[in-house]
Amino acid sequence: MATVEAVIPRPAAVPARWLAPVSFVLLNLVGLAAYVYPFLLADVQRPDADWYMHRGDGPILIAAVTALALALLVGELTNGGLDSKSLAALGVLAALAAVLRTFTLPAGANLYFFLVIMGAYVFGPRMGFLLGAFSFFLSALVTAGVGPWLPFQMFASAWMGLSVGIARPLVERLGLGMRGHYAALLALGFVWGLLYGAIINLWFWPFFVGGPDISYEPGLGFAETIRRYWNFYLLTSLGWDLFRSFANVAALAAAGWALLPALLRFHARFRWRLQPAE
Prior knowledge:
The protein is an all-alpha fold. It has a domain at 84-266: Arp2/3 complex 21 kDa subunit ARPC3 (Orthogonal Bundle). It has nine helices and no strands. Helix 1 (16-36) runs antiparallel to helix 2 (58-78) and helix 3 packs antiparallel against helix 4 (112-123).
């Protein structure tokens, strides 16, 4: 007697080539939303609220960012954006950056940024974004720095790696040679020493209560909000960020002349392609 088997259709799988771009877009949307949403709350400075200082959404953000970053990494490996050698380089650079973050310089400066900037500049925006995110995650595990601030640090560092990775092709198009690469690295190190501080402050500034001219208040309008944040940044953060910028420039100037050519040669060595004979 013939038997009839029910066939349950499988859901259509998302094409592998879409995993990386979808993960990248979602990851950045999560980051932007996490930074922006406190500014939209009318009672943002109410300490008894569950979301105050990201008490409630902090663990959710850490889980979401980590999962999406891993999905982005798998997507890049699947569609060829990264290969096994790139993955190995990413792991080594992220681990070294995490170790360097344990060595604190005066005024809170850190050698961590030097290595992330150098790695992102050589290996490009894709790997720079991943390097910035994963190296900060690993460094948080090493330094016991896991908290509601971690996803915001990961986003700021990832955006740093992304922007720095875009710079090298531009310098090459200008034909500035190795001196141009050195100058670009020094400029990026200085600028991102300031930008990182300006971005990361936003994770807590909406909750900050201080003087009337440096605190956030809902309903002030965009221009007044920017003016107050500028005052806050000048008063509380600029001096520390300048130390970070000078530390970045000093580290890049001291080690960049030797490390940059070595990384460029390493990058070129595993990027060769076999050309068919004519």
